[in-house]
Amino acid sequence: MSDHGIPTDNAEVVGDIYAAWAGATPDASAITAASAYGGRRTLTYRELDELSNVVASNLVRHGITRGQRVAFLTSNNAGIEGVLTYAGAHKAAAVALPINGRLTPAEVVPLARHAEISALVVEGAYLEHARAVCEQLATPPVVFAACEQATDGMVDFRRLLDSDGPVTAADLPSVEPSDMADWLFTSGTTAAPKCVMLTHANCVAAAHILSRFPGTRHEDILLTPFPFFTSSGVHTSLFTSATAGAHYVMSVNVEAEPLMREIEEVGATIVGAVPSIFGYMAKSPAAAEVDLSCVRLAFHGGAPVSPHQVAQYQRLFPRAEIMNVFGQTESGNPGTTLPGKHALSKAGSIGRAGMPGVSTRVVDDEGTDIAFPGVGELLLRSKATMAGYFRNEEETARTLRDGWLHTGDLVRVDDEGFMWVHDRKKDIIIRGGHNIASIEVENALSSHPAIHEAAVVSKPHPDLGEDLIAFVVADGEERPTIDELRAHCVPLIADFKIPRDIRYIDSLPRNPTGKVLKRELREHG
């Protein structure tokens, strides 16, 4: 599966990846991350393998059985606990299900209900979320609290680390490549949540592809601030590093200066982030004070970039290849890349070919490959592509056709085959790397008693890539202030989904069938 000739070449399930390096280089650093109990901790590959075995064993003792969902609601401030939960769930033949830590309790409950979770791991900051889940689910999950004092019948997370002796793979349930490994929610809490299902075979394929695209080496130190509840955290970060036996540093820093100083301090050789973070770093006065020549590869994705931005990144990382990457949760995260040699001349392009092991097509509405130059929908195919959406056969059939993943992204292709994301068939706005379903924001605004309806579209943003504009129609003469509308949204949707730009409009433009013409609204923006 891999051409590296490395211990993980023969991995069939996710747990094999950690076990392979535990055998080959047991004392090598596997991960450095913050702990919910304070401080930072580094786990070797031996420790990662052995501790995740113990967690798996204790999950089974607490009643977790094959295929049940083990959700975790942890930030990077509890990175150690998040990783051990993730790896332990896999080894228990359960399904690991990360949940966005920026969601409100009201947003988490329907996700937990839809996925029918059996266990939930939370850090102290999310005890309220756990209580809401337990109160509102017909069958409450067992809750493990990673904090100094577990309450309300919750189990102290440290109980998952208790062991009377070594736990080996032979002591754990058998795991097959066809078993479910990861379930990840895409962008929202709509009436029909989309929960991406990935098997162990999908995840192992993703791990090998993602390790190859940057050419990860055993001696690399990969540092990213990607939240560990995202596919960029669990796949593009952990998998990219662990498959090569490298050292993954999970950063808690998203502010420019501390992040740059951390990169310099640990000697990171590979760094990944959304473009807005690289942009803030490049503009920071501290950029002149740090030496980031240790970085050999800096990759970004999630938002378009300009030649000016790329030039900033090149000055920030003077010895690094600057690479743009494109992927989706549904693809397991593998997708396309723009190599550094084209970073300036084709700035903003997502490349012209898939990562190793990923096939691409660009098709018209009839499914026919387009001629270049032109515009069409990007299709992806690899062994990492999802098995489907949980309990959403209609959307699965629409997205997976004849072995191809229909991304819903329209791309513009030049005469050389380089692709740029042109628009989205799916009404998703990508703000600073966060996917936001406009319908969620529209529903939140429209729930105000003085608002008749709302429409949300994107607008370009120099740092975030995209930002939101909300157009609202008042229900009568009363017009709440913009601050009042924003305050109304606070308990309903995550903070990053709340629009800063809200405008009143007499009526929303519509076509003859009644569909809102969002293209016209974008032109107003």
UniProtKB/TrEMBL annotation:
One Pfam family named in its UniProt record? AMP-binding_C
> Is Hydrolase tagged as a keyword?
no
Q: What does the record give under GO molecular function?
A: acid-thiol ligase activity
Q: What InterPro entries has UniProt attached to this entry? A: AMP-bd_C, AMP-bd_C_sf, AMP-dep_synth/lig_dom, ANL_N_sf, ATP-dep_AMP-bd_enzyme
Q: Where is the signal peptide?
A: none
Gene3D superfamilies, per this entry?
3.30.300.30, N-terminal domain of ligase-like (3.40.50.12780)
Where the record annotates domain AMP-dependent synthetase/ligase, the positions are 20-390
Q: Where is the AMP-binding enzyme C-terminal domain?
A: 440-515
Q: Which UniProt keywords apply?
A: Ligase
SUPFAM superfamilies, alphabetized: Acetyl-CoA synthetase-like
Keyword Ligase part of the UniProt annotation: yes
Q: Record's family? A: Belongs to the ATP-dependent AMP-binding enzyme family.
Q: Under what name is this protein listed?
A: Unannotated protein
Naturally occurring in which organism (per UniProt): freshwater metagenome
